[in-house]
Amino acid sequence: MAxxxxxxxxxxxxxxxxxxxxxDERSPGDEAPPGRSPGPFSPQADQEPGTLLLPNSRISPxxxxxQALGIGGAAGxxxxxxxxxxxxxxxAAQLLRDQxxxxxxxxxxxxxxxxxxxxxxxxxxxxxxNFERQSGTPPAGKEPGIGAGGALSTEDAGGYRAGSIxxxxxxxxxxxxxxxxxxxxxxxxxxxxxxxxxxxxxQALRTNLTQAAECEIxxxxxxxxxxxxxxxxxIRPLEKRALNFLVNEYLLKNEYKLSSITFSDENDDQxxxxxxxxxxNIPKPPDLLQLxxxxxxxxxxxxxxxxxxxxxxxxxxxxxxxxxxAAQKTETIQVVQELEYQISxxxxxxxxxxxxxxxAFHQALLSFCRMxxxxxxxxxxxxxxxSEESVMLxxxxxxxxxxxxxxxxxxxxxxxxPLILCTACLHPEPKERDxxxxxxxxxxxxxxxxxxQMILMGCVAFARHVGPTRVEVELLPQCWEQxxxxxxxxxxxxxxxxxxxxxxxxxxxxxxxxxxxxQQMLAEDKADMVREAVVKSLGIIMGYIDDPDKYSQGFELMxxxxxxxxxxxxxxxxxxxxxxxxxxxxxxxxxxxxLIPSLLSRIEKLLQQGEHGLDEHKLHTFLSALQSLIPPxxxxxxxxxxxxxxxxxxxxxxxxxxxxxxxxxxxxxDVATIIGSREQLAxxxxxxxxxLQHEGTTGxxxxxxxxxxxxxxxxxxxxxxxxxxxxxxxxFSRFFWRLCRTFGKTFTNTKVKPQFQEILRLSEENxxxxxxxxxxxxxxxxxxxxxxxxxxxxxxxxxxxVGFLEDVMTTLSLSHAPLDSLKASFVELGANPAxxxxxxxxxxxxVVHTSALVRCTAARMFExxxxxxxxxxxxxxxxxxxxxxxxxPEISVRISTIPAFGTIMETVTQRELLExxxxxxxxxxxxxxxxxxxxxxxxxxxxxxxxxxxxxxRFRDEFVLPHLHKLALGNNMQTAExxxxxxxxxxxxxxxxxxxxxxxxxxxLNHFLPGLRCLRTDMEHLSPEHEVxxxxxxxxxELKVENRxxxxxxxxxxxxxxxxxxxAKTKFLSKMGQLTTSGAMLANVFQRKK
Length: 1090
Fold this sequence. Notes:
The protein is an all-alpha fold. Helices cover 64% and strands 0% of the residues. The chain starts with 42 loop residues before the first helix and ends in a 6-residue tail after the last helix.
């Protein structure tokens, strides 16, 4: 070892006296000499993580180190027969040499507690240079401030110091930690140690300044006061602070607490908890009582001192001593402030579980507590008096509003709330406080909305003032007592209190007791408004919960809330609970890993169980939950994108279009609220579109999960839905519409549409092969058409939708496949008038198609479209197309138009339009070319039975019933048994439906009953069981005709009776009118004659 170098790790104490060698004298290429321990921040230290210890970790030195100590100890003893004893100083030196810094720190602490302070450890840990953070990577072999032994020398460390001093916090404890979850606790321990050392440094500096000031007070000034006793020396700042401390101590000891609080407020620049804050490092004097008792017997000598902080003339002090000391003190104070700030951050980190809710989302979540302090009383309740004077002022403000109403026997009880709260907050007796809070919760028998808000506002003010412990001990029991109260308003107050107090409760209580209370109320309470408030409070709890084990409980609560029978509760679940729960799952990393997959698996299981009858309500429950998770899913994709680090606020950001996102169910489902602001979202959206269009999705894990896992699973589920279930098709269509609108047009065109198109295979070369293509008959077709292709309404989007529907119609028609998927698409799109023109364009394509199969399909689709289209479009577009098809060369096409004509007769009111349709139907029935068309007759009878009960009565009496009579009569002469049976079955269905209508006696006798008799003749030979029913129907109709004649005769008699009754009533009223209004005379009218 070179002479003159300082190595704090050497065993010999004598070497500490050597002059330190400057590290900048070493050449850049030099390496540490053999035997020299590397510095704590050298590359060698990084390569040996075992040499760094976490706080509170007790790891023994290596065997080699112990062996070295043993050898050294033996050598020091000169080789005796007894086992050598290693000195504590040697152990400390070896620990420091091998960089067991925290083990050495624990040894130092234990020695201090035992009263055996070791100078080597004291000097090492009191030197901030030993823990200096390096501001950059120094050249190899040249580490500023590192001495020969690896420690930072004081001189070099000071010269290399960066803007702020950091010591042990520069160590990367996470890298060497076996337990990453304890990182915050370990950093707190290290920082607290540094804070303690920094405060000791400040105290030492204060002592030095005080001593210097005491020695340099001008002697002439002291002589003036001694020579003239009548001149009283003015109180010094130091004396004032000492007396203030003693006075405050006296007030507290003698129960003058309010006076003590006021006194502390008036001296807010002094810390009355710490005597050292007075300013001098001197023993604390006796209290005021002892000073008073001893003032007559002994007179302590007067020490002439000067305040360390003020009143000292720096020119009287030697040289620049004060300047240097003050600068060092200022720098140390900055270190203390920085350490305190870091400790507060880490403590808040531990308490809030590192929740990453944006301030906008957090504010929107708390807004559901519905507390407002806009009124005078609200402002009184929201602030609690904290002193005697404040209480008096508050009483003065509230009593004038209470007294007049008390005198008038009115219970203005809300004015009592601030008084009760203030007293409960400041009262010293726990029993009295409990009684006051009991009064508060029972103040109003059935509090209305405004009164509950006042009570809640008071509870929040109380909680903010007294802290979490008293809230748990004093407020929560009041809530628990009223959880089963008979009045729903009181239970509602409990439910709302749990949410309002959530931010002020200990985290353990939030996730255990409060969560259990709300879960019980959600499952058991019968009042809808109470369960609604419970769901909102559960959402607020989810915003503060920090126990990952509660995830499964939160998921079950979500399903329980969604399955509630009350629409209010379900709406609150979507507005508050699901967004808050989703935000928590994002922090846990469970949104894509657990929450969404769990809902998808439940939907799949539901579809497997529902092959013979799907529970559509449960499907709606799960799918609506998925729909509410789309905004947080998109926000997660944006926040974990490759461009997120480049998202910075700029002035030239394009604002977001109003229609860019679907309307959110609540502010918590607004993507801008989840992200933090609309400006930040606008920046992310610009980068998002650019990334999709130009840079792709490589490495974008959250978006790749949506594309590669979520979309394929959803499309596979859609293919298993029963296409005839209008509700299911509608639900999934809405879901895909919201998904595509949220993720944007580029995503829809490049990621969603290709996956659907790959499955549907609608190209021309696949038409012949698609006879067995089952996917075209599934719900995939209507959901793709109505949920994906309708997301955007530009011209090219509409053309794509028209082309898809035309291709589906052509493919299904040519393949002789069922038309259910096409019908479902028309029903879903037809519900929106904006798509009527587009659907008519698609049908006109079918009307003029070269294939009769496609023309037949188009004719049948008109039946679905007529019901929702306005009569103008029916007259201008529908009827001309149907008349064109009714003259088609193919008889099958003409027959296909009959259901649509019938629907027009059922829904349209325009007389001219009805006449045109009536003429067309008459031509089908009366034209000789159709006389033997069995299929046409079947279709007409079926249509008459469907539309007859709802059609215009005149059309039914003059057209439908006479033609049914003719068809029944003609069927009696049918020789083909199978055709006769088909017609008879259809006639039976039609007459059964029409029998419920009001039919005039003439039509009944001339057409309805003769038609039934003809039908009975057929059924006697073909279906005897139907013949029995027909005979009963005929008897019933004949009875109606007979009763109608009797009823007319009875009706004429009742008219005569009513005339007699009217005459009697007129006479009675006229007699009443002749009487005066005298009560006695009016009573005489009803007396019996004697």
